Amino acid sequence: MKKERQIAMKRLAAVMVSSAIALTACGGQGASSGEYDANSKATITWLNILHTASPPTDTILNKLEEKTNSDITFSWIPDASKEERINTALASDSLADIVTLTMLDNSSVRNSLKSGLFWEVEPYLKDYPNLAKISPDTIKSASIGGKLYGIPFQKDLARNGVTLRKDWLDKLGLEVPKTTDELMEVARAFTEDDPDGNGQDDTTGFVDRNDLVYGAFKTLGSYFGTPNNWQVSADGKMTPEFMTDGYLKTMNYMKQLYDKGYMNKDFAVTAKTDQQQKFAQGKAGIYVGALFDSKNLLNMSKGVQDNMQLVMANDITSTGKESDRAIWAANNGIGGLLAFPRTEVKDEAQLKRILQFVNDLLDEDSYALMTYGIEGTHYKLDDKDAATIINTDLWQQEVQPFAASRPKESGFKIHDADPLKQQADKMIADNANYAVLNPAYSLDSETYNTQGSELQKIITDATYKYILGEIDEAGFKEALETWKSSGGNSIIAEYEAAYKQAQSQ
Q: pTM to 2 decimals?
């Protein structure tokens, strides 16, 4: 385990694929009409992912335009439908000057990057002060076939853990769990022992969502020793995570939670927003996901669960041994790419001006705008650069939608004054000491590029069916054989060859 550890607008009212197509007709026209210098005003279109219910108003957009000397038009794609819509946009060449690509393991995305559709940007990074600071490890992880086809979203390496209702733990006389067995007991007690004291059978332990990666499953998998997507042996043999004992143990754990009613029965069809609402409404007491979500969960509970108290855990193991502590690293610290299509960004001069724009988004002032908003309007700042939101509703409407568009999410002077958020940040930093990387993340497999997404659906469907009791272990093994015979064996062989080549360089 130790060897695996590594110390990464113009507002459009509604966004459909048609809005992206509309951008193709007008996208980039202003930006490609002449030569640019660093002081020229840029006209930029941006096909971006929306993680909130509604797009932002123009308040922060106007400030960003002023800060970056640009006119920006966003086309927002809701996160829930990003895979379908990004695939459609790529297939129909309905893009924009900047395209947010968060699914680097998606076959269509990967093939588009490799095909030369997007500019290779690594040679230009040295010319921009903020872009030049991107670490070689980050560049390597974000590269495909040794080439960097966009500016990486720099994320914290390992953000996940468990958030629990501390007030419920205290009421039931329970400690913060250190093992998966203790976590199971907390889930039982939160379900069966009336933790909210209302005399009704109306709570569960876990509340989860339809996401085997960013929901509970993958984080629980780390506690059972599951590798991060792939495991590589000393002699270079590659094993996918779903063929390991840790993965089976995680499925059994989730199945036990489901069978005993210790989690929401509708988890397989629950969206993230609904998951968080259920927690905030007091329907469940265990949330597995990004540790910084704890602050948002507490804020969402105001007026509904005003007595809610939260505590976080990031040191749970299945064995109780500190030496087995591990947490998966999301995409090796890469949140995707800001990519620049050659069909929209016509020449090197235009590319350089857009790179200057992205460089400006990495400034402290831009980060503050996209994270906290406008001082005095959305937040106040103390003498230690700690920010406190002073108008939550306004912040959610005008600022929050921009958070996922920040090219980098940490490492700035300004920070959150909220004690829960500060604790989450410390625990996320601590997680980096136990982070398990995906050894295949920067490797290339032609079969994976063409079939990977479709093949993964075989495993995802089988995993859900196992947890829901629709198939048994034999049925799951049948799915593994289908995966292997449908192209999985080729993916294994190609990754092993790529790994061997990388090791020899």
A: 0.80
